[in-house]
Amino acid sequence: MRLHTLLGMALSIAYFNNAYADNISMTNNKLSDAWNYYQEKTNDALMHITNSPYFSKKQDKAEGYRHIFSEITQSTQAVIFSNDNYPTFQFRPNQKIKIGLDNPDNAYFTSQISPENNYLIEGDLGSTATFAIQSLAGVPGYDGAGTSKEQDSLDNQTITTDRDGRFKIFIGEEKPDNLDEIADNFLKTGYVTIDSLKKPVQTLLVRYSYNDWNREQKGNIHITKLDKNNNPVTGMAPNLTVDDIADNIKVAGDQTYETTVFWDEFAQKLDNMFASNYNKFTAPSATDGGLKSQFSATAVIDLPKSDKEVLMVTTYPSDAEYQGFQLGNMWYESLDYKTHQTSLTSKQSYLTHDKEVCSIPAGAYGPGIPAETIVKDSCYRYVVSAEDPEVKNWLDTTGHHKVFAFLRWQGGSTHASDYIAPWSKVVKMKEVKSLFKMDERVHGSDREKQLRDRYTAVQQRYQE
Q1: Which helix (H) or strand (E) holds 132?
Q2: pLDDT at 317
Q3: What 3-state class would DSSP assign to 89?
Q4: Which residue of 125, 316, 435, 437 has the smallest Cβ count within 10 Å?
Q5: Regarding beta strands 309-315 and 322-328, do their DSSP bridges make them parallel or antiparallel, or are they unpaired?
Q6: Strand partners, 203
Q7: Which residues contact 107 (CB under 8 A, 6 or more apart)?
């Protein structure tokens, strides 16, 4: 073989090796750049939390760090481990991933979708008090969205099912002419304007809401992408590429940082709104950005430890299919509801039948409101405190002395004025027992049973 031929082969091999090395280098750089960017964003999120006014006491600091991991996990599942061409429903938020004052009474399922695709959902209602599914645009705080916004929704009162509670829902931007051949229900996607920005509908959020944790069961639900002829898409997903994962890592970093900032600032605004009126509830109203079928009343409860005070809260039965009362920390998360009694539904709450204590006293809602006592035959009486007051309807602040409180009604009257606002008063802990009759208190192993039932129910819900 001639020398120049060997030389040419050697140069070709060298060129190939250099090109290969350059390609490997470019790949490594793209991935490492994305990872470095992600780390910067998560560090920025942590810095924001540590500079928050709520990052003060030891417990708040510990929960602040944990909150960062909730934000990281939420964005990781939504961006890294989701594929709108091969969607699945993920169990989030849940008892570990807490965000946006998640409701302890809900089993949430979330799926990422694209408005460019059509999908088919099949499932059943289960036996929970209520069911709802929303198509949403925007992630709260991310990419210029002040909050998420609903495009469309269905609930257990509006969805069409068979006699066993099973349903099919066509998901898409336009309702097909042959809908009745595909599904019994339609849920619109497309685009929604949020704060003058056009945002795609990219999230489906499902709620199974429990009133009775021990007996009710969530249904099953799954989703399939449809092709252009609205037939189920089958086959294997394409292999993950460097470009895709690098881009998604950056998006996950952005989302972690921006949603962390959003929820902290949202909590601060809400706290400031109540600053001159702590321990008092708002009147029932439609939940801003929430379910159309839901009304709520909120409060910020502030009980300085040194005062040894508790808050007594009185609420009333309603025609709602679901009614629940919960507490949350200042990171706007639910408190530990598996091992502490930090929430109660109307089914879990003791109902008192006593006009003397249930009637709404004059001035309960402020000077002159109501002008005179309004007689009520029955009510739910709660005690919010850090220490056990030995009453059945105790809401445990888990050591916190400042918490958010949220009361929800779903599936009842469509007029906020039909729900009675909670009223409250601060009393000394030592006075509590004298204000509650024997049948309203816990005795012997009552509290132990309440907590054991909660622990079991949460494990069953999340299959732990």
Answers
A1: strand 130-137
A2: 97
A3: coil
A4: 437
A5: unpaired
A6: 112, 136
A7: 91, 128, 207, 208, 210, 218, 461
Q: Are 224 and 232 in contact (CB under 8 A)?
A: yes
Give the H or E element holding residue 155: strand 149-155
Looking at domain 277-462, its CATH architecture is Sandwich (2.60)
Question: Per DSSP, what are the bridge partners of residue 327?
Answer: 405
DSSP, collapsed to helix, strand or coil, labels residue 360 as: strand
Q: 123: exposed, middle or buried (C-beta count within 10 Å: 0-12, 13-18, 19+)?
A: buried
User: What predicted TM-score, i.e. pTM, was given to this entire model?
Assistant: 0.92
Q: Over the range 28-42, which residues count as b (16 or more CB within 10 Å of their CB) and which as e?
A: eebeeebeebbeebb
Q: What is the pLDDT of residues 302-356, one digit of tens each?
A: 998 888 999 999 999 999 999 999 999 999 999 999 999 999 999 999 999 999 9
Q: CA–CA separation, 50 vs 65, rounded Å?
A: 9
CA distances from 164 to 126, 436, 442 (A): 9, 44, 39
What percent of the chain lies above the pLDDT cut of 70? 93
- Do the Cβ atoms of 82 and 255 come closer than 8 Å? no
**Cα separation of 391 and 381, whole Å?**
9
Spatial distance between the Cα atoms of 430 and 416, rounded to a whole number of angstroms = 36
Strands (E), 264-355: 285-286, 294-302, 309-315, 322-328, 343-345, 351-353
Length of the chain as a residue count: 464
Helices (H), 53-97: 58-75
What is the C-alpha separation between 424 and 131, in angstroms, rounded?
30
Q: Using N-to-C axis directions, what is the helix angle for 3-50 and 58-75, rounded to 10°? A: 140
Q: Are 180 and 75 in contact (CB under 8 A)?
A: no
Instruction: Indicate the domain borders of the chain.
Output: 28-268, 277-462
**Among candidates 111, 201, 203, 121, which has minimal Cα distance to 159?**
121
Least confident of 74-78, 91-95, 164-168, 183-187: 91-95
What is the number of other CB atoms lying within 10 angstroms of the CB of residue 84? 16
When mean pLDDT is compared across 141-155, 169-183, 224-238, 448-462, the lowest value belongs to 141-155
Question: Tokens for 215?
Answer: 């007996």
Strand partners, 360: 374
Q: What is the DSSP string of 192-259?
A: EEETTEEEEEEEEEEEEE-S-TTT-----EEEEEE-TTSPBP-SPPPPP-HHHHHHHHHHHHHHHHHH
What Å distances lie between residue 463 and 69, 105, 122, 218, 434, CA to CA? Answer: 22, 15, 21, 12, 41
